[in-house]
Amino acid sequence: MNSGTLKPNEGRLQTAEHILCKVLEGRANDAVMGISKFKEDSGLLEITTAADARTFDLGALQDEVNAVISKGLPVHKTVKKREDAEKEVDLRKVPQSVTEVMIVDIERFDKRPCRDPHVGNTSQIGKFVIRGVEKAGSNRYRFTFKVEF
After folding, report:
1. Domain segments of the chain as ranges
2. Buried b (16+ CB within 10 A) or exposed e, 85-104
3. Global pTM?
4. Would you write out the chain's pLDDT as a tens digit for each of its 149 residues?
5. Which residue among 27, 39, 62, 79 is the one 20 to 30 A from 46 at the CA level?
6. Distance (Å, rounded) from C-alpha 130 to C-alpha 113?
7. Residue 72 in contact with residue 121, Cβ under 8 Å?
8. What is the CATH architecture assignment of 10-77+117-148?
């Protein structure tokens, strides 16, 4: 979530996090994305899955994210009324009180609700680097990552 002050790399990190989410969903079909947090130069994503995410090949995961980034996919942001948005994306994590939803669409790759800043094209992200993954609770895993120019 954006606390009001945009961090220099936030759009890059946010968009990379969307790509990581989609790739992880492909690796663990029961994966549920949890919280994400962003610092000045890094991000954190928690997922819930029965698979032990610590056993994932992090190099291959990182390579897959970077392969998507290198495609230079356009990133579209559109705001839709909730009733229209729910026809396109899963809104379970969006509070019912939210009547207009921003949808972030990484063209031909992923579409999900998000109110935070993103880049206009995946080529603006730079190199994605996974710093690590650790167990954060029962079936919960925390990925840490960064982006480099």
Report:
1. 10-77+117-148
2. beeebebeebeeeeeebbbb
3. 0.93
4. 444 555 668 899 999 999 999 999 999 999 999 999 999 889 999 999 999 999 999 999 999 999 999 999 999 999 999 999 999 999 999 999 999 999 999 999 999 999 999 999 999 999 999 999 999 999 999 999 999 98
5. 79
6. 23
7. yes
8. 2-Layer Sandwich (3.30)
